[in-house]
Each structure stands twice: as C-alpha cells, then as structure tokens.
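Give me the fold.
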Amino acid sequence: MKNSFVRELIGNIRGKRFLDYGCGAGLFLVYAARNGAREIVGVDAESSVLSTAVFFLARENVSDRCGLISSECFPAFDDKTCFDVILMKDVIEHVDDDEALLTAVAEKTAPGGALVISTQNALSLNYLTEGVYHRYLRGEKNWCGWDETHLRFYTFVGLTRKLRRTGWRPVAWRSNYIIPHKSPFRPPPGVKIRRFELLSRLDMIIGGQFPWNRCGWNLVVKALRNGCATSQHPGG
C-alpha cells in the first residue's frame, strides 16, 4: 500500500530527472526507468543493498539508464545537477539533522520540482497504543518503533513545519496502516502474521481521504519547492 501511494504522488515521471535518496534495492529506480524517466540516480549508504540494486537493474535491462552512488550523506552534486523528482522513502527518521537534509535536497530540486517523503507517524492508532506501552509502561523513553535506527517519529503538523522552514510546500498526503490489519494471534499454518484482507482494503481506500490520510502508521507527503506555482494534488 505504501508503495502504491508513493507511485501515485510521484506522478508522471516521463522525461524527468529522478533521484531516489535511500534507494535500497532499487525498486523505484526500476519503476522510474520503466516509466520513461530520462535521468535516474540512486543513493544509499549500504553497499550490500546497492549490490542488490545492481542485480535488479541488470535483470530489467535498465542498468545503462541508472547511476548509483554509495554515500552516508546527501551527495555534493555539481552546480549544474538538479532533479525534477526526489524520493526519500523511510529516510528522514534515521537522519540526525533532518532539516539540513531537507534544505540540501531543496537546493538540488529544479524549479517546479517535487519531493516525496514517507516516514513514521506519532499520531497513528498503532503508535498511540504500542508507544504508550513501550514509553510509559516499560520505561523505554526513546522507543521509536521496531527499527532501532529510528531517531524520531513525526506528525503531519511537525513535518509540515519542517518542510516549510526548509523551502517546501506540502501539497498532498497519503497514509497507510490506519487500521491495524495484521496480527500475530493464531495465524494460519506456516505464517507468523495473520492479515485481515477486508481491513487492508478499507485501509487503502481511506488512506487517501482527509483526515485519514494523516492518521496511519506511515505518512507519505508530496511537497513542492516554495515559489513553484501548481495546483494542489487531489486528496490534499
């Protein structure tokens, strides 16, 4: 569901310059190549996942259209390099200085360009229940979900403020895992987690509707550089 929302907010990428910062195994690099992006760059800090990206790019026969950079910080691109669409999927919650990163990304975004971010939400039902358990009942004051490398959670209000301070204007929100639809209770044989498909489908439907598009465990936001005139994406 998250990837579906990310694709929706990326929009038409044909002929555009695309950067995936934190590209992982290259899923969205392949997506950009298949959908006609004219320049594609992936950046990740982990050499092992970049090796996986190399494999998938080669398998899809798009290696010649994609550049890969191994870096633990946002690369110092040359002055002429700008991108039309930049994706940061599950990245900023790992970064010490998230506002510095957002500023650096803005400087490398072309006029009219867009940034798509996905991250974790402190206003989700899942966080409000599990977070209370870990932070207050167990005394784990720094608990930030299941990934120990998370430094923080966001809310749509706090993330909006940070985006605006760093040169961005949020124009569309999506959210998923609004309704917890996975459970470890009595799963079917051979699996660890039971998935409730009806709740999953409902989650997908309301994840693009206000106010539910700001209420899931995961937030996805599309932002434009300040000063770039365009109409708001459907669903706000």
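Residues 2-225 form a domain with the Rossmann fold fold (CATH 3.40.50.150).
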